[in-house]
Design a protein that fits this description.
175 residues; mainly alpha; 8 helices; 0% strand; globular
Length: 175
């Protein structure tokens, strides 16, 4: 197995994040039937790979929090793949909200990403948590959607363009 640098992991995670976002959006907006389902599942697989990479990135910060965030995120993706929305609650988005909040905590505690990136990720988490109530989510739309997408996009683009501070990642991983 070829070792992958932390910077490369960050960039690949950002690319998977971007791919998943655009694939899911294109599937929801432009496709129908089986093709929509297939593209949606492709987006779920890409997001799952991104979450596993996030675990490997943030494990040196706080292993249990990274594992909890990843587990919550993966369960959310399972709900998304099954399109399970009991009583109109989009469980996948709500669980993504918890994933975003935990990721924000990990960003604050990390030494290899700017702490300011925790704010948009936490904002995304709070925005996605509004989907616990379909009435509240509907009333706050499109602001909650905008804050959720924008908050995650800021972190995604940072990872894609800048990546992680390789030296600081290894320092934190070694301690």
């Amino acid at each position: 197995m070829i070792p992958v640098s932390a910077k490369q992991r960050g960039r690949v995670a950002g690319a998977l994040y971007l791919f998943s976002l655009f694939t899911a959006a294109a599937g929801e907006l432009y496709l129908h039937g089986r093709l929509k389902i297939a593209v949606g599942l492709l987006a779920v697989v890409a997001m799952a790979a991104m979450m596993v990479l996030f675990y490997t990135i943030f494990k040196p910060v706080e292993k249990r929090t990274a594992m909890l965030g990843t587990a919550i995120g993966l369960v959310g993706l399972l709900f998304e793949a099954m399109r399970f929305n009991p009583q109109g609650v989009d469980v996948a988005i709500v669980l993504d909200g918890f994933f975003c909040l935990l990721t924000g905590v990990l960003i604050v505690r990390s030494e290899f990403m700017p702490r300011i990136l925790a704010a948009p990720m936490a904002l995304a988490g709070v925005a996605w948590l509004t989907f616990q109530s379909p009435t509240l989510a509907s009333r706050l739309s499109p602001w909650n959607l905008g804050c959720g997408v924008l908050g995650e996009a800021v972190v995604m683009l940072w990872l894609l363009v800048v990546g992680l501070d390789e030296k600081r990642w290894w320092e934190q991983a070694g301690s």
